[in-house]
Amino acid sequence: MTTLLPAAPGSPAARPAADVLDVSGTPSVPLTRLVRVELRKMRDTRSGKWLLITVAAVAVLVMAGLFIWGDQDDRTFMTLLGIAFVPLAFALPVLGILLICSEWGQRTALVTFTLTPHRGRVLTAKVVAALLFALGAIVVAAIPAAILAAVGGAHAPWDDVTVAVLARVLLAFVLGVVWGLAFGAALLNSALAIVAYFLVPTLLSLVGGIWTGAQDALVWFDLNQSSSVLFDSGPVTGAEWAHMATGFLVWVVLPGVLGTWRILRSEVK
């Protein structure tokens, strides 16, 4: 649009102003597009792509190993899915950490937050993308587990498969992802966050093994140990849910709140 500048004193007429670009009515970037961008970031890099391929291959191989060398009665769906969770439990939090720290580790935060100045929307897109990857990991693990259970010859391969058990398995996958996201957001350094994620449960286990009198107290803070009951076929007691809730508050909520504050308020250089 073109406007007229007021005439200067002594000037015979007003002069036209330069064209002004008005972007106030430009719609914001849809959240779905931001999620697609974050999903692409997780697989575009060579390290991310090979990490996904390696983890999927290892998950299938450990299930095949149980199928070949394990007992016939162990070839149940839940047993196969549980053993596939072991490599996935290492990979999914690492993927979450790499995703949340990518803007700072690769120094792209300035570009990202310039193109999308609402940092909260970018952070939300990263969380949604990580959760979608967790759902994809369950599918990757569940399909070969179901096939091997169907042909494994176990006496009752589907007895423990209920909606409640599958919901707990989904919760275990999601818990690992958000734990990695929280550590990554709090530290904003992928190497440091990965070390911290694996070091904290190891230290708690060592303390519990050396100081046996503290085991009853440490179970309230050892989220890795308390969440292991999610793969049990039996019901989870109220005390076990309380242990998980306390560990979730300490190791996910608190660093997640700190990390969110850092991402939203820290200066981008």
From TrEMBL:
Keyword Transmembrane: yes
Endpoints of the signal sequence: none
Keywords: Membrane, Transmembrane, Transmembrane helix
Positions of transmembrane segments: 50-70, 76-101, 122-151, 163-188, 195-221, 241-264
Name of the protein: ABC-2 family transporter
Naturally occurring in which organism (per UniProt): Luteimicrobium subarcticum
